[in-house]
Each structure stands twice: as structure tokens, then as C-alpha cells.
Amino acid sequence: MKKERGLLIVLSGPSGVGKGTVRKTIFSQNDTNFEYSISVTTRKPREGEVDGVDYFFKSREEFEEMIKHDKLLEWAEYVGNYYGTPIDYVEKTLSEGKDVFLEIEVQGAIQVRKAFAEGLFIFLMPPSLSELKSRIVTRGTETNELIENRMKVAKEEIELMDAYDYVVENDHVELACERIKAIVQAEHCRRERIAHLYKKMLEVE
Amino acid sequence: MKKERGLLIVLSGPSGVGKGTVRKTIFSQNDTNFEYSISVTTRKPREGEVDGVDYFFKSREEFEEMIKHDKLLEWAEYVGNYYGTPIDYVEKTLSEGKDVFLEIEVQGAIQVRKAFAEGLFIFLMPPSLSELKSRIVTRGTETNELIENRMKVAKEEIELMDAYDYVVENDHVELACERIKAIVQAEHCRRERIAHLYKKMLEVE
Predict the structure, then answer these.
(1) Domain boundaries, chain A
(2) By the 8 A CB rule, do A16 and A148 touch?
(3) Domains A1-34+99-205 and A38-98 share a fold
(4) Per the CB < 8 Å rule, is A186 touching B183?
(5) Among partner residues A162, A168, A185, which is closest to B189 by beta-carbon distance?
(6) Nearest-5° angle of CA B99, CA B100, CA B103?
(7) B158: which chain A residues are within 8 Å (Cβ-Cβ)?
(8) Which B residues 146-175 touch A at CB under 8 Å?
(9) Is the Cβ of B29 closer than 8 Å to some Cβ of chain A?
């Protein structure tokens, strides 16, 4: 296969659909060349966490400078700390020909789409709303009111599906992972991306 | 996975690239639901050939009626006989939710693209022109002049790559088959094709 720039793969979907499990399974299967996108955060490193491996650790001032200078593909504040995806790291990795894998919330993915339209946006979908509800219920000891609220948010998130390129049903984790890997493999064969590499043949030989 | 209409998969590529071998390998692997598109022909059935299985056998008058009434996705005349792809059979199979697999010459594929723009057009590409040449040389006892002529035609066919959706390198038959199956699996996850099926969830539940 001819050498080309990597793809930015953005996996997202409604809260409770199982994005984290799917992402961990893909990385544990070890049959892709995906690089996990390292986030920037202002929270303190926990024991054993390494700067540039687990996170890029920054001060609030540094993070706010990054926001100001458009150095983040997306960011959010969560429990008093900033979290974001640094453009420079993503760009560097893509230019090395590696695919970057980003697993984020729906709102973050919409931000990324605006900054990086050529990314590959995959929406992970529950097989049904009742299945999503039972996953949310199983996860924690949430009250009925909280559960209903999370379902309402999930429905709003599903409405945002149209901003994505692909919809992958998470009926079984292994099947969902297989579909995601097929999508990435297929995208590497898209004519718009690679035709120029093959057309060079006609000039050279 | 939600039920949807099948895809028309059109595999093509320059003469000598190995389309037939790739198609036979995919069907022998038996892990897809592809239906092989049955051609219409005016040639006489050979012993053991069954109408509606190997070919749809027609008279010249019937075939010319099909041409006249736009009943063929593509057709050509070869050694005094007509060969073509019947639209009705393709449409019927797609509407049953099955993917139809068509392996044809580049010129035929360009005809199909005009009649059936939503098909999935895959261009099978040799790893290099010198590799294509050695495949053509290995095939038969052709003269240098004939080989040069076939290479000239192949280069012209490669120029038509832009009418296709995907380019698959045939470096190894098994890898090419895997890529083609990944492309079909990915296309079944394309948001434009399936979002409406999932959005129904929001109404029903």
C-alpha cells in the first residue's frame, strides 16, 4: 500500500452507549496502528502518570493560552479542571502517517468537526433506547429522575447523528470494534485520498 | 444491525490486474452475503449451464429489445454475442437486502456509473506497472507488440480511476479481498444510508 497521511478517527455517541469499552477493546486487540490522542489537562498528575504519555499536564494559564491561540481541537471544563485535545500533537502524528484515535463526548466531536472537517466521524449507537436505558441503570445507583434526565440528553445527542460520517451499532462490543476497523481500512482506500499516489505510477514508469 | 437495501458493488480495473481471481476468491471464502450478478447473453448455453443460474439466455431479438427499453445496466458485443447486466435482476436482489457483486471491464463500469450512480465502484490497481506487465506476460504467449498494446490500454484504463469511489491495491489476492469486504462493511455503516433507520427509534420508543 502506498504511504499517505494518517486519519483522525473520532469515536463518539450518546452517554452510556459504551464508547470507552469499545475504545479499550480496540487498543487491547493490538491489530491496528492507531495512536491514542493524548489530552491536555490542568488537573494534577496522579501517581504513576507520565507527562506526554497519559496526559500533557499544563497550568490553567498555559491552557487558557492554548484556547486563545486556537491550539485545541476541542476542550471542556469538568469538575474545576480543563481537558482538551491539542492540535499540534494530532497534526504531528497524522503527518507521520499514523491514524489518531479520539474518543470524546458528542458536543466535543461537534467542535472537532468544525476545526477538522476531514476527520472520520463515527457515531456509536445503542441497538435500542430501552437497551441504552438498561445500560445506564446497570452502571450506577442513580435515581429515576437522573436516569430520565440522562435518557433525555441521550435522545438529544442522537439527534446530532447527522454531523457524523458513519453510524456503528454497539450491539456487541467485538462486532462494533470490527466495524470501526473496517471503516478505517475502507477510508484508506478512498479514491480521493489515494488516487494521486497511484497516478504517479503513470508518470514515473 | 438494521435492515436496509443492498449495495451494488462494482469491481473493475485494468485488464490483467486480476479481477477474476479476486472475485472468485471472495466467493470461495463464503463469509459474505454477496449475490453474484447473473449476466444476460445471446450465446448458446454450454452443457450443464442453467438459465437463470449461469446466465439468462436470450435471443438476439430479445437482447436488442432489452437495449432499446433500457433494461441493461451495461452491455457489450464480444465475438459475435451480446453480454449484459440486467437491471431488473439487480434491482430485485438489492430490494431483498442483498449486496450484488459485479465484476466487469472498466468501460462497462463507466456505463454502470451513469445508470446507477449510488453503486459502490471499486478500482482494482496493480502495485506497479512493471508488475502488471509481468502478469500480462505470464498469462499467455503474446508478442511484444501485443503486450505493449495491452499496457497502453491499461494505462488509459488507470486514467479512468477518478470515476470510482475506492482504489484497492492487488498486491496480494487475500489482502485485496479483505479490503473489498471492509469497504462493503463500512459502506453499510455510512450515516446517509442508515441514519433514518436509527432515527425511527426516537419516534417509536
Answers:
(1) 1-34+99-205, 38-98
(2) no
(3) no
(4) yes
(5) A168
(6) 135
(7) 198-199, 201-202
(8) 155, 158-159, 161-162, 164-169, 171
(9) no
Other Cβ atoms less than 10 A from the Cβ of B19: the count is 21
CATH architecture of the domain B38-96 equals 2-Layer Sandwich (3.30)
Q: Any CB–CB contact under 8 A between B128 and chain A?
A: yes
- B116 touching chain A per CB within 8 A: no
Contacts of A139 (CB under 8 A, 6+ apart): A16
Give this complex's ipTM.
0.88
Cα A140 off chain centre by: 24
Architecture per CATH, B1-34+99-205: 3-Layer(aba) Sandwich (3.40)
Q: Write out chain B's pLDDT in tens, 205 residues.
A: 566 889 999 999 998 899 989 999 999 998 998 999 989 999 999 999 999 988 999 999 999 999 999 999 999 998 899 999 999 999 999 999 999 999 998 989 999 999 899 999 999 999 988 888 888 887 766 788 888 888 888 899 998 999 999 999 999 999 999 999 999 999 999 999 999 888 887 776 5
The partner residue sitting opposite B162, judged by closest CB among A1, A182, A191, is: A191
φ, ψ at B23 (rounded to 5°): -60, -45
